[in-house]
Amino acid sequence: MIKGLAITPPIIGRISIGQVIERNGQRLPSKDDQFTITQQVQTKDGWITHPLDKQLREEQKQDKLRIIPVKVLFSEPELNLRSEYSMFDRSNGRLLCTGNGDTCKRVTSEGTQELPCPGPDLCDFGKGGLCKLYGRLNVLIGDEQDFGSFVFRTTGYNSVRSLLARMMYYQAASGGLLPYLPLQLRLRSKSTTMSRRAPVYYVDMELRTGMNLDDAIAEARRLQEGKQQSGFDQAALDTAAQRGYANGLSEDLDEEIPGVLEEFYPASPQPSHQSIPSGQNDIMGRLTQHNQQH
After folding, report:
1. What pTM value is reported for the model?
2. Distances 137 to 124, 129, 201, 217 between C-alpha atoms, Å
3. Fewer Cβ atoms within 10 Å of its own Cβ: the N or the C terminal residue of the chain?
4. By residue range, what is the domain housing residue 179?
5. Model confidence over 111-154: pLDDT tens digits?
6. Compositional bias of type Polar residues: which residue ranges (predicted)?
7. How many other CB atoms are found less than 10 A from the CB of residue 40?
8. Residue 293 domain-assigned?
9. Is 44 inside any structural domain?
10. Beta bridge partners of residue 111, listed in sequence order
11. What is the SS3 assignment for 181?
């Protein structure tokens, strides 16, 4: 295996709750109140819609797609949703630092080093919105397509916290049957004083509509037994995923990072009063804090 190359689940499409729009000559991220499922191909008009997007809207008889039936690939929640604090260099798209609030891996003049990670609010290296939470959720949609997954990227604390909590609870309550449970993503909203009472949208996970936990667990157990009889090894799959993720510093390929930065790390001039540690201006670029609540 080539060192430094993270091996991630194959991606065949994207799930988003926003888009990048052009306004006053600038390309800016814009939140949405529905899901959009796209292919991995982008034109000057934006991402090309995936056929599943239209199919689900017709099945649900809704103009706005707010529920997506899914299954997850792995037993461990943090293999399905990887989240960490990340800081990118906007000038060249390189990942400079990634941490979990305890330790981080940071690119320095001496190579990649493991250092303490106090989190973005207390870190001099990434303060001022230069470092933020970044999560990637991989799910299967519709009929199982081997390991071909759709990725949902987010910098929203609400989405990351809700998704991880749900998967942790479902995994525990089902006795380890998380990959076999019939699940769905649901778009929810809430308002806070920080949002000035305007709705903030985030992604949650729940059992499929019309199913209770007992029925879902019974169905998952039947599916697990059938898979085991066919020779499917879920534990080995989880181990392979762990090895693949650990093999590299960044999951995102070089050609993907500009789009990630544009959508989740939009640039704006640094406030004049902000103190930037000496020598870091060249690698920090012009990152600023984006709305972290979606």
Report:
1. 0.83
2. 29, 22, 17, 22
3. N
4. 11-278
5. 889 999 998 888 988 877 778 899 999 999 976 668 999 999 99
6. 270-281
7. 14
8. no
9. yes
10. 108
11. coil
